[in-house]
Write a structure and sequence with these properties.
Chain lengths: 156, 656
């Protein structure tokens, strides 16, 4: 659905002729190109609804793809390229939120809840192993009405 | 006139839904059979009214009645008939009407098939279902009325978004909604059981078919959506961890968890409170999904502020239903004593682990989806959470689930032994490991994802086969094969669904790991190599479609000189919406898809062409369909029909 919104957005803006990665952008060295692709998949197009610059048709994404390749050619590491783009566009463009500050909540939430849940499940399972937890038979017995219904249901 | 009739029917449906909510609840409280009996006809009348309303709107779309705002905004006289009809639900108001229609359909089904329910439970289930109907009908009538008229109708409409003019997407929303809304039944059963203050094995059996049906629809709906994204969006991706996709994935995960925990309630009378909670949360996530999709809040807090009315209304619905149900749960959960005892190593424990992993996975998707919102609200940071996060945070749980699945599936109830349980699985383990290692050896310098996918896929699929086979007991092979056919459908369904899951896991890994991509400029008449294939761009022509213009390339794919396929990728332009779309051309194959996309003409002549070889693409959707089919097999199991059979027998022999 985001793409639909994107296209609606583009329909208002002048329709560009650019379309995802273009042949003329591709670097000659396949190793460097692979790095560029990997980086651009982690960068979000600033004007779209949640597309990476690798997938996006927006002109700004093309510019960013070229910037990424320029920095790679200039000898930057992947982290330096990302930092370069984040300095100019903010952390909004990072699809992979940095594990620092408040973002630690995001990164630790899954494992944290898993550990809590696992602990709870263990306690529960251990308790189910102990016969003391059973109720007395009278409490759980069916009423006469329910007995009749049961006979009905199983067809006897 | 017909439109006014539809509008009126909708208002009437709201009134009926109110009656359906209040009267049976009161009746069940007072043990008044006459009042409780109102539930059944009310549910059916509500369904008939909403169906009439839906038919009226469909009529307006089919006849292109441009006095309706909705038709003007979403239709056009030149649009093909299929899309005139699918245009009914291709927009906010119409999709809500479909939502309400399906909701009422499920309510009516409960009235229809609910003969074997205790009368008070039945009355309460239908009443709770009615109350959800009240909320959504009010939402529609007050904020999103599909029947608004224009004083001066225009000559023609603004057309449906071209991306939605596609057979895959015509059927995607109805399936998804059948799933979303189907979970409302699980919710209604949970709330009704809480009001009754009693959950037993029978409750587990009643709630399971509804959940199963909802899960089947969700599976198909999600697969259709993913398939549509694959062929329509033009770069072969199949899942984007987009908020809207996540909105459908969370209920799916929870529905899967609920399916499994309801088995424990049914067979062992344990995990009752947890199952009730899951049933509430599964529908809660459907509502959250609706909220995310309909309010636009996830895109940005600011777009929410632009149209707060709808968002606030859905939030209110969410608060009332979740708040109400959870409060009720807090009061009643303590009284739901578990009965069955089981040891640490047992089927029960395995299903607890399954539930833990599925719920945590759903939670990870949830936190990732809403984190941008929370970060902006509480920490003033505008950030994004995308694929890399989900791949890192979600996958471990998915992998763990696949690893424990075959072991848990064969574990005996109550008490098992880990080593004895593993013994029948040794062949699967060895083969998975061997073929995973082989895949690792054959590919050099690529990610471990492919081999891991191979190993997991074989482990789960073979595990499912061995599960069925062990179930036939001991003895001669011929006898066991004969017994295979007599196994209950539920066993077949379970094995089939698990195998489908294994195939899907494998296909996801294979597509992510082994995709081949090629981007280049090709002139007319030019050829290039794509993996083992040779692709020739024979010609590029201008073609006129019913409501679009197309630049259509004709491309021939050969392998060793023999023609494999002639493909015609297109770039379309829809003049009414002023919108271009790319139509990829795909040669579907058993082991691979060849996926071609034509781009723009280049300054120096020729066209930008992107080509992909997508390995095992069809296995992904095939796996999902097999999963859904497994669910269907299970749904047709004898034990869900026992009660129906009993009532027939009773009617046939009244003298006894």
């Amino acid at each position: 659905m985001k793409r639909i919104l994107l296209v609606l957005l583009l329909a208002v803006a002048p329709v560009s002729s650019a379309q995802a990665v273009q042949p003329d952008e591709v670097l000659a060295d396949p190793g460097l190109e692979a790095r560029a692709r990997a980086i651009s998949r982690d960068l979000r197009c600033p004007v779209c609804q949640g597309e990476s610059i690798d997938d996006s048709n927006a002109p700004i994404s093309r510019d960013l793809r070229l910037v990424v390749r320029e920095r790679i050619m200039a000898g930057d590491t992947d982290a330096e390229v990302l930092a370069f783009v984040v300095d100019r566009y903010g952390e909004f463009v990072l699809f992979n939120p940095r594990a620092e500050g408040a973002n630690l909540i995001l990164w630790l939430a899954g494992p944290g809840v898993f550990l809590l849940g696992a602990a709870g499940a263990l306690v529960y399972i251990r308790r189910r192993g102990q016969p003391v937890a059973t109720e007395s038979a009278t409490e759980t017995a069916l009423t006469a009405d329910e007995q009749a219904r049961l006979r009905d249901l199983i067809g006897k | 006139m017909i439109v006014e009739f539809g509008h009126f029917a909708l208002v009437l449906a709201l009134a009926v839904a109110l009656v359906q909510t209040v009267v049976p609840l009161w009746g069940a409280y007072r043990r008044n059979a006459a009042l409780m009996a109102v539930a059944e006809p009310a549910a059916m009348i509500q369904f008939v009214l909403i169906a009439a309303s839906f038919a009226a709107l469909t009529y307006a779309f089919v006849t292109s009645d441009f006095s309706l705002v909705l038709v003007v905004q979403n239709s056009h006289t030149l649009k093909p008939m299929l899309y005139k009809i699918s245009g009914v639900w291709g927009n906010h108001e119409g999709s809500l009407l479909l939502w309400a229609l399906i909701l009422a359909l499920f309510g009516a089904c409960a009235a229809w098939f609910g003969d074997n329910l205790p009368p008070t439970l039945k009355a309460r289930v239908i009443a709770v279902q009615g109350s959800i109907g009240v909320a959504f009908l009010m939402f529609m009538l007050f904020t999103s009325n599909p029947f608004l008229r224009l004083e001066v109708p225009p000559l023609d409409g603004m057309d449906l978004n071209p991306l939605l003019q596609d057979p895959g997407l015509a059927f995607h929303p109805p399936f998804l909604y059948l799933g979303y809304v189907g979970l409302s039944m699980a919710f209604s059963f949970a709330v009704a059981a809480l009001i009754e203050g009693r959950v037993d094995a029978a409750w587990g059996r009643w709630v399971r078919p509804w959940t199963l049906a909802a899960w089947i629809f969700l599976t198909i709906g999600i697969a259709l959506g993913s398939w549509w994204a694959y062929y329509e969006l033009g770069w072969g991706g199949f899942w984007f961890w987009d908020p809207v996709e996540n909105a459908s994935f969370m209920p799916w995960l929870l529905a899967a968890a609920l399916l499994h925990s309801a088995i424990v309630v049914e067979k062992r009378e344990s995990l009752k409170a947890w199952t009730i909670l899951l049933a509430i949360m599964a529908f809660g996530f459907s509502l959250i999904g609706t909220f995310i999709v309909r309010s636009g809040v996830i895109t940005s807090v600011h777009s929410f502020a632009n149209d707060p009315e709808r968002g606030v209304f859905i939030l209110l619905i969410l608060a009332v239903f979740m708040g109400g149900a959870l409060t009720l749960f807090a009061f009643r959960a303590g009284s739901m004593e578990a009965k069955g005892l089981f040891a640490m190593v047992s089927r029960e424990s395995a299903l607890v682990a399954n539930n833990l992993l599925l719920s945590v996975a759903a939670f990870v998707v949830f936190i990732g989806t809403i984190w941008p919102l929370l970060a902006e609200l509480f920490f003033g940071r505008t950030l994004s959470v995308g694929e890399p996060f989900f791949n890192a945070a979600f996958s471990p749980f998915a992998v763990a689930l696949a690893v424990i699945l075959p072991i848990g599936a064969m574990m005996p109830w109550k008490r098992g032994e880990l080593l004895r349980g593993l013994r029948p699985l040794i062949p699967a383990m060895l083969l998975a490991f061997a073929l995973g290692a082989l895949a690792w050896a054959m590919q050099t310098g690529r990610t471990a994802l492919g081999p891991v996918g191979v190993a997991l896929g074989i482990w789960v699929v073979l595990g499912a086969v061995l599960d069925l086979w062990t179930r036939t007991g001991r003895g001669a092979v011929a006898g066991r094969i004969a017994r295979l056919g007599r196994l209950p459908r539920a066993d077949w369904g379970k094995a089939t669904a698990h195998a489908g899951m294994g195939i899907t896991v494998f296909a996801v890994c294979a597509m992510l790991a082994w995709k081949t991509e090629d981007i280049r400029i090709v002139r007319e008449g030019g050829s290039y190599a794509l993996g083992p294939y040779e692709v020739t761009l024979t010609s590029v022509d201008e073609v006129q479609g019913p409501n679009y213009q197309s630049t259509m390339a004709t491309m021939v794919v050969r392998r060793d000189g023999a023609e494999v396929a002639v493909l015609t990728p297109e770039k379309r332009f829809y003049p009414v919406q002023g919108m271009p779309t790319t139509e990829a051309a795909i040669d579907y194959g058993f082991l691979r898809d060849i996926y071609l996309v034509i781009g723009d003409p280049q300054d120096g002549g020729g066209y930008a062409v992107r080509s992909y070889i997508e390995p095992f693409a069809n296995w992904l959707w095939g796996g999902c369909l097999i999963m859904a089919f497994g669910g269907l097999l299970s749904l047709t199991d004898r034990r869900y029909r026992v009660a129906a059979g009993a009532s027939r027998r009773r009617a046939a022999v009244p003298a006894e």
